[in-house]
Automatic annotation (TrEMBL), chain A:
InterPro entries registered for this protein in UniProt: Thiolase, Thiolase-like, Thiolase_C_2, Thiolase_N
Protein name per its UniProtKB record: Acetyl-CoA acetyltransferase
Provenance organism: Marinobacter iranensis
Family matches, as Pfam families: Thiolase_C_1, Thiolase_N
Boundaries of every Thiolase N-terminal domain copy: 20-227
UniProtKB/TrEMBL annotation, chain B:
SUPFAM superfamilies associated with the record: Nucleic acid-binding proteins, Thiolase-like
UniProt-recorded name of the protein: OB-fold domain-containing protein
Organism listed in the record: Marinobacter iranensis
High-level lineage: Bacteria, Pseudomonadati, Pseudomonadota, Gammaproteobacteria, Pseudomonadales
Domain of life: Bacteria
InterPro entries to which the protein is assigned, alphabetical: ACP_syn_III_C, ChsH2_C, NA-bd_OB-fold, Thiolase-like
Pfam families the UniProt entry points to: ACP_syn_III_C, OB_ChsH2_C
ChsH2 C-terminal OB-fold domain residues: 405-460
Keywords: Acyltransferase, Transferase
Residue ranges constituting the Beta-ketoacyl-[acyl-carrier-protein] synthase III C-terminal domain according to the UniProt record: 215-294
Classification via Gene3D superfamilies: 3.40.47.10
């Protein structure tokens, strides 16, 4: 019986670039910005890093394939480096590779770095790209908002929710994230908005409007990980450790069989339960202090609250409007602004979430510091509601 | 007995107001205003000669067993491919199998009637049926008379020896190189000569030549003709020709210039479908096709004529309409203006022919799979059964789904992604009996799509690869009540 990853790996240092429309920075610039912060935070020399995992989501508009762009940008000393790509779960996947390497004993110190340069494309939204030779012949040209907007239609039908009520709850999700993002100097969007603005913004994909969409940003984030023992030996106190790392990948059942009702994300439910089991969490609503979820669109965050068991099924609209996930609510969500306002450079996003956990646990989160957080859950969702990849990491104080 | 065994019709749903054409163009040619009566049919951006042919073919097959079809002729002067047999695409979309004669007939406005004569004259071969589909996506210059008078459409006929609804009595063709208009290999639009000359030296001389020979051969008097089909964009010419020959004015089948427009090669067959719909047993039906001479074909309706009304037919296709007064959209759909497509529209649309061929059952036939072990229906057909309780390998038999209705499970209207007619509607469709697929919707009116709405499948253009002159087809869902 596998014992899981809980407390086997600690974070030695982390770094995160400013996210945003970084017109004048290259992918290498972004990588260096995150890496130098992480290296200084870890207090080690570059040559002490023994292995590296590199996350980059969209090859064609980013750095190209392989881990060479990382190794070259950081002038790594010819260490083993691996490129990973798993859509929007890419950042967490890079982290998982580095954590597993340390846990296995294959190395003492490993680097995970994710980067995405999205604003070289020349238009708003995510880059239009191929879905593969065969898929392109019959899939709709569905954009990301077009895919996730359908979650709203499925949710309305399943729970008999009125269109206007759901839209209002979606608006609340975004208003909350803008309020949080306004307190984060590294966030892409640092401006508060009102519920009316969110509701009245033009449709991108019915019922998703402009303010229901996350920022499309350039950025990079990294983590340097090691064992708790080595971290202590290197003089670190108040350690932050990995409690769970889980992934669930669709197998075509939601898209092709009859059981999925279109109102939720099946893989999130599976990955969440596995993660709670791995971390030994029995009552997530009482034990989780904060969440960073994949709020690519407001409707995704709303539905995810149920999929993570933080709201009862069909009650997320009520809980969201009740402020349960606001900065002063029962389980704050996106305290750093989330994908919505911190931004969403795909390959960096999973690591950016862990970066915020890390700052919060160390009391370094400035104006947005939460009171005594113990456990944080991070959630990424790559793909579409009907077929996707869900990654969940649970990070906490090493006690 | 040998003759017509079935018929079907298709007219694109969009009907462009002719007043809108005149409003946009009468600054240049005030005479257009006089032609601006009613409306004309217009292909949606994702429709062409092939997709309309499939629709008309499906309508015809609503009263004819697809398994009996041993021949498919496609007649048109607007075939999307000059070298790739268009009729084969149609036959595969109609799931007619791989053992049949196929042929494209083109290059004249009488291609449809000439193909029909060829089928009729080749006679019965066993118990099978031959299928003729005539289809035309007419293109014309912006602000031209043709733009005002022409339309798009398709019609289909079954020809065979069993269950005949209109008996073939004979045919004649008068051949002369009369060039009223032409389109050379290097041009996309027609060049026409003077209307009055076409009337006096063309219709008025050519049609009576062919018809008189035919009636003499068959011993039929013009006064006994109950339905006379003569397609023409000259409003008064068919009546003048009929009068000259002694055919009654009541027998003249209306050209529907003010409701459909003259749909080129498809038009004589479409009007024949309209005549068959109205004909009583014993009625004599004279069909002519004009172009470098005249084809004339004579039928007599049998007592089975009322038994084989197709699902939609001409009247049904005519009634299934959506008004449009947006002339710019018509220009855009017909490539008559250079459009902004946005950067998302610029992505490469390479056609991977090997992969397309490998997937042709799905792409052209809309064939899914049914698991032999658990009965689960799934589309696309894949290696392992999708039912998690089953998961059998290589257990799926072909399961054609183009005629299966579905219901919308999830949906959206996407304004971010590229579409020729935004917003792009798409969603998850759940099929009756099982199977679901994320697919495009087409011809959706705002407010007509919601979870639970029934949809039917339609063969449509999925994408243009303009860089390489290719177009890809697939199936799309349309709300059933439309």
């Amino acid at each position: 019986m596998a014992s899981g990853i809980k407390d086997k790996v600690a974070i030695l240092g982390m770094g995160c670039s400013k996210f945003g429309e970084r017109w004048d920075t290259s992918p290498a610039d972004l990588m260096v910005e995150a890496f130098e912060e992480g290296l200084a935070d870890a207090g080690i020399d570059k040559n002490q890093i023994q292995m590296a995992w590199f996350g980059a989501g969209i090859d064609a508009f980013n750095v190209g394939s392989s881990a060479m762009p990382l190794s070259i940008a950081l002038r790594l000393p010819n260490i083993p480096a691996t490129k990973v790509e798993n859509m929007c779960a890419t950042g967490t996947e890079a982290f998982r590779g580095a954590v597993y390497a340390v846990a296995s004993g294959a190395c003492d110190i490993a680097l995970a770095l994710g980067v995405e340069k999205l604003k070289d494309v020349g238009y708003g939204g995510l880059p239009q790209r191929t879905r593969g030779v065969e898929n392109d012949m019959y899939w709709p040209n569905l954009s990301a908002p077009g895919a996730f907007a359908q979650l709203a239609s499925g949710y309305r039908a399943k729970h008999g929710v009125d269109k206007a009520d759901l839209k209002r709850a979606m608006a609340h999700v975004s208003v909350k994230s803008h309020a949080n993002g306004a307190k984060n100097p590294k966030a892409h969007l640092q401006r508060e908005i009102t519920e009316e603005q969110a509701i009245n913004a033009p449709y991108i994909a019915e019922p998703i409007g402009l303010f229901d969409c996350c920022g499309v940003s350039d950025g990079a984030a990294c983590a340097i990980v090691t064992t708790p023992e080595i971290a202590k030996r290197l003089g670190k106190a108040d350690l932050v450790s990995v409690k769970a790392l889980q992934l669930a990948v669709s197998n075509g059942e939601e898209a092709g069989f009859k059981t999925w009702d279109g109102s939720h994300i099946k893989t999130t439910r599976i990955a969440a339960q596995r993660a709670y089991d791995e971390a030994g969490i029995r009552k997530p609503r009482e034990e989780i202090s904060m969440t960073e979820v994949h709020d690519c669109f407001s409707i995704t965050e709303l539905v995810t609250m149920e999929d993570l068991q933080l709201s009862d099924e069909g009650q997320a609209v009520r809980d969201v409007l009740n402020g349960d996930f606001d900065a002063d609510g029962r389980i704050p969500c996106q305290i750093d602004g989330g994908l919505k306002c911190f931004g969403h450079p795909i390959g960096a996003s999973g690591m950016r979430m862990i970066y915020e956990n890390y700052l919060q646990f160390q009391g370094r989160a400035g104006d947005r510091q939460l009171k005594d957080p113990r456990l944080a859950l991070n959630h990424n969702l790559g793909g579409f509601p009907h077929q996707n990849i869900c990654s969940i990491s649970i990070i906490g104080r090493y006690e | 007995m040998f003759g017509i065994t079935a018929y079907g019709a298709y007219i694109p749903r969009t009907r462009l107001s002719k007043a809108a054409i005149a409003d946009a163009n009468d600054w240049f040619d005030p005479s257009l205003r006089g032609l601006a009566k009613g409306e004309r049919s217009v292909c949606n951006w994702d429709e062409d000669t092939i997709t309309m042919a499939v629709e008309a073919g499906q309508d015809c097959l609503s009263t004819l067993d697809a398994g009996s079809v041993n021949t498919l002729y496609l007649a048109s002067t607007t075939l999307p491919f000059l070298d790739r047999q268009n009729s084969v695409v149609v036959s595969q979309a109609l799931n007619l199998g791989d053992q049949l004669r196929t042929m494209d007939v083109a290059a004249s406005q009488r291609a449809g009637t000439s193909a029909l004569i060829s089928m009729l004259e080749s006679g019965a071969s066993g118990s099978g049926n031959a299928l003729l589909v005539a289809s035309e996506h007419r293109r014309s210059k912006c602000g031209s008379r043709a733009e005002m008078l022409w339309g798009d459409g398709a019609a289909a006929l079954g020809v065979g020896a069993e269950e005949v609804i209109a008996e073939y009595l004979g045919s004649e063709t008068y051949v002369t190189d009369f060039v009223d208009h032409y389109r050379g290999e290097d041009s996309t639009l027609d060049y026409e000569w003077e209307e009055r000359w076409i009337r006096d030296e063309g219709y008025m001389k050519s049609v009576p030549q062919a018809v008189s020979r035919l009636l003499e051969k068959t011993g039929v008097k013009t006064a006994d003709i109950a339905h006379f089909v003569l397609a023409s964009d000259q409003a008064k010419t068919p009546a003048a020709v009929a009068k000259k020959m002694g055919i009654s004015a009541e027998a003249l089948v209306d050209n529907h210039i003010g409701s459909v427009g003259v749909s080129g090669v498809a038009h004589p067959i479409l009007l024949l479908a309209a005549a068959l719909e109205k004909a009583a047993a014993g009625d004599l039906i004279l069909v002519t096709g004009f172009g470098q001479g005249t084809d004339a074909v004579l039928f007599r309706a049998t007592d089975k004529i009322k038994d084989k009304q197709p699902k939609t037919g001409f009247a049904g296709a005519l009634a299934r309409r959506r008004e449009d007064a947006n002339y710019n959209r018509f220009l855009s759909f017909n490539n008559l203006v250079e459009r902004e497509v946005g950067k998302r529209g610029e992505t490469d649309k390479q056609s991977y022919l090997a992969a397309m061929y490998r997937r042709k059952d799905l792409l052209t036939g809309f064939v899914g799979g049914q698991c032999r072990s658990c009965g689960t229906i799934q589309i696309p057909k894949e290696n392992y059964c999708v039912n998690p309780e089953c998961g059998e390998l290589d257990s799926q038999d072909d399961y054609p789904m183009s005629a299966v209705q579905g219901r919308v499970k999830t949906w959206t209207a996407d304004r971010l992604t590229f579409d020729w007619n935004p917003p792009a509607y798409f969603g998850l469709v759940e099929f009756e009996g099982g199977g679901r697929l994320m697919m495009d919707f087409t011809e959706v009116e705002p407010g007509s799509i919601d979870t639970g709405v029934p949809v039917s499948m339609h063969f449509r253009i999925r994408q243009f690869d303009n860089q390489r002159g290719f177009r890809k087809y697939f199936w799309k869902a349309t709300p059933v009540q439309q």
